[in-house]
Structures are given as C-alpha cells and as structure tokens.
Amino acid sequence: MKVVSFTIPVAKEHSIIIQEERLPYFYNYLHRHNEIQITWVISGEGTLIAGNYMHPFKANDIFILGSNQPHIFKSDAAYFEQGSQLLVEALTVFFHPNGILSPLMNLPEMSATRKFIQTTDFGLQVPGAHWKTVSDELLNIKKAEGSLRLANFIKLLDYLGSIKDYHLLSTAADDLHISETEGLRMNDIYQYTMNNYAENITLSQIASIAHLTPQAFCRYFKKHTRKTYLTFLNEIRINEAAKKIVSGNFDSISSVAYQSGFVHVANFNRVFKKVTGKSPKQYLKEYRHKVN
C-alpha cells in the first residue's frame, strides 16, 4: 500500500476553498486537516468513517467534518473493479475558522455561527429534509467570486446553524485525535477490514496488520475508537449487508448473512438488530415503504 501523509495539505490561496471531485472513487486513505469540511456527495456509494463513527453514504448525503477529525470516504468495492465505468462526484467547501477567517468569525454578528462551529468537532450529517437547500447554497458558493462568495458562505453557515436535528458522526472529539504514525496504522487497520470483512478475520491477523501483539492491539483499538475490534468489524459487515438488502440483489437473508462474513444466520439477525435497531426483514420492509 502506498503510504501517504496522514495530514492532507489544503491550498491557502483563499479563505474558502472549493473542491469539485469527479473520479473513479473517493480518496482512499484515512486523513485529516485543520479545515472544517462540508461535503455534498453528488453521486457514489460507500462507507464513511469519521472518528469512531462508521455508516454508509450515498448520493445527496451531506456531511460536516470537524477540524482535524480523521475520516475516509471508502467507495464500495465495485468502484475499484478493473474496467469499472463507475464514477463518484462531490462538491466540498473547506474553511478554517481560526485561520484567515478568524477576524470575521469574532464579529458580534457571528455569535450564532460561532456556536454552530463548536458543534462540528464531532462531525455532523445534514438531515435529508435539508439536503436540497444546503446543496443549492453550496452551488451558489461555487458559482460566486470574491466578496459574493464570502457572502454566500456566511448565508450557508447561517442556515446550517438553524438546523436542529443533526446526526452526530462521532461520540468523541479531542481525545480521539491521533498522531501521524498512529493515523497510518489506523488506515491500514481500516483498509484491511473493509477489504476483507467477508472473510474470517482472526485477532492475530488484524493485530499483525497493526504490527502489534493481539493483546496490545485490543488495547490500542479500544483506546482510539472506544469500541472493540469485533464491534467495528460487525458494523462494517452489517453496513454491507444493509446495502445488499436494499439493492434487492440477493437470493435470501441467509445468503446476505454468509456473503457479509457471518457463519450463522441467527447471529447475523441478532447483530443486525443490535446495529440498526431492526431485523433484516423489518429493515427491508421500511426501506420499501419509504421509496414507494
């Protein structure tokens, strides 16, 4: 695996950075940066890991990632297949409230915005009911230049600050910040797990990926994610199973269980309900009701 810097540098020429992506798959490494990131996934599917949060993403999902929050948008396996014609597309705004924008953010009129920015440390998912308004505002920022871009950006922050029903992406912030070396190690752990979740991953195997003994690995992983590795692995498996279920491309619930790495269907059903709050059949029924 190519090793890249855990901290991704972002251009400093502007106070607000706009990044458009149209690629075979999203950036495939765990990374972080000083800037707060607002990303609208225009097209593409996969799994987002942010801090100790892990959840599927799809088109028209919008996420706000906190300053220095480790994250990776891991595209689904189909995007990496040889000859794949699939593409992902996203529009992202980066900004550093304590950098060049600091004088603006400290104005009395920005007090509500400052309070909102403080809530981004854990990462936020914009509720689906607001995606159209937020995506339109992001497009307005992209199209504008100079002071108009800044004005549209303030308008976006004002709207984001008015939303009350955000979904938190992580249950911890500052105490989960990790060093460059640890970031590369966590990237290796995440990559191996997401690429091999359907296999029988033993504790010895994953510990060797991290170059730790099994006992040291358990302590290390729990310290940096506040969950056990088995919990994380099961979350990955259930997220992949949920994608298969809603796609309708499966023969039976038991086949989904086996393809997702579960040996026993009963255990799959138990873990699925623990992770999603619903049985596989309930999950499918509610999804069909939502889209019909």
Description:
It is a single chain. The chain has 292 residues and is α+β, with helices and mostly antiparallel strands. It has two domains: 153 residues, Sandwich (Jelly Rolls); 95 residues, Arc Repressor Mutant, subunit A. 44% of the residues lie in helices and 16% in strands. The chain contains eleven helices and nine strands. The strands form two sheets. It has a six-stranded antiparallel sheet, with helices on one face. Helix 2 crosses helix 4, helix 3 runs antiparallel to helix 4 and helix 6 packs across helix 7. The longest helix is centred in the last third of the chain and has 19 residues. It starts with 15 loop residues before the first strand and ends with a helix. 33% of the residues are buried.
Give the topology:
Blueprint: E1 16-23, E2 36-43, E3 46-50, E4 53-57, E5 62-65, E6 71-75, E7 88-95, H1 102-105, H2 111-118, E8 124-125, H3 131-143, H4 146-162, E9 167-168, H5 180-196, H6 203-209, H7 214-225, H8 229-247, H9 253-259, H10 265-276, H11 280-291
Helix pairs in contact: 2-4, 3-4, 6-7
Order of helices and strands: EEEEEEEHHEHHEHHHHHHH
Number of helices: 11
By CATH reckoning, the class of the largest domain would read: Mainly Beta
Q: How many β-strands, per DSSP?
A: 9
Strand order of the largest sheet: 1-7-2-5-8-9
Question: Which structural category fits the helices and strands?
Answer: alpha+beta
Q: Please identify, by name, the CATH architecture of the largest domain.
A: Sandwich
Query: Any idea what the radius of gyration is?
Result: 20 Å
Mean pLDDT across residues = 90
The biggest sheet, with number of strands, parallel, antiparallel or mixed sense and barrel status, is:
6 strands, antiparallel
What fold name goes in the CATH topology slot of the largest domain? Answer: Jelly Rolls
Tally of structural domains: 2
The CATH homologous superfamily of the largest domain is named Regulatory protein AraC
Helix content: 40-55%
Weakly predicted, low-confidence segments:
none
The coarse overall form would be globular
